[in-house]
């Protein structure tokens, strides 16, 4: 399951989405996520799903690869759905002892499940189609106005990019440690949930040691290359908007207008 986490990974291929300016993809991801919280009916989610499907098609990233990343959040998704399903007051549909499923709870559970799924897939598209270097450059250039407030923009962008890049590396490291301990008789899959959680505790020490070692190696490599922050640095390939980037912004604007306007209409349905 740890290998199924797609956040932070880059999928190497040639597509329209891959060639877009990273600032467009960052802005698009943020606006797409924000749009999901404005919908009041199912039409808005249908428009968002259609837009997401179009972007996935244009990215040339296999849909199965993106769905694979959802396996890692199934437990979190299940807890969120259960909380909304059983703890939302309203018109009772089904009574299961002290637990009741209400019409409002069912609507909230479905909405939250759809929203979280789209949020994860939408965020994955950005990292799957953007290299860590381009992501850093896009963040830095997008946050450049904050430099006037003495905010260390370059350092923040670098840290966020490194954090995203280290997610799959640390997951792979955890998978290796688990397999090594299972070969020595450790059991991570049987027993109750509490027992399995306790069995994961011995993983933390070698994982933290590995993480600190990688961080130290990275710091030494950056120091050896005379890294001194973003002040005075130049880019080999500076970011410049092209025609396709302006078309992407226009498409994003059309999506936001259509989805939010339709998503806030008073339409009868489960939402």
Contiguous uncertain segments of 5+ residues:
none
Helix coverage percent: 55-70%
The separation of the N and C termini measures 32 Å
Q: Major beta sheet, specifics?
A: 2 strands, antiparallel
Structural class: mainly alpha
Shape: flat
Percent of residues in β-strands: under 5%
- Please give the order of strands in the largest beta sheet: 1-2
Give helix and strand order, one letter per element, not per position.
HHHHHEEHHHHHH
**Structurally, how many domains make up the residues?**
1
The number of helical segments is 11
Radius of gyration (CA) equals 22 Å
Report on the structure:
Helices cover 65% and strands 3% of the residues. By secondary structure, the protein is mainly α. It has one domain. The protein has a two-stranded antiparallel ribbon with strand order 1-2. It starts with 15 loop residues before the first helix and ends in an 8-residue tail after the last helix. The relative contact order is 0.18.
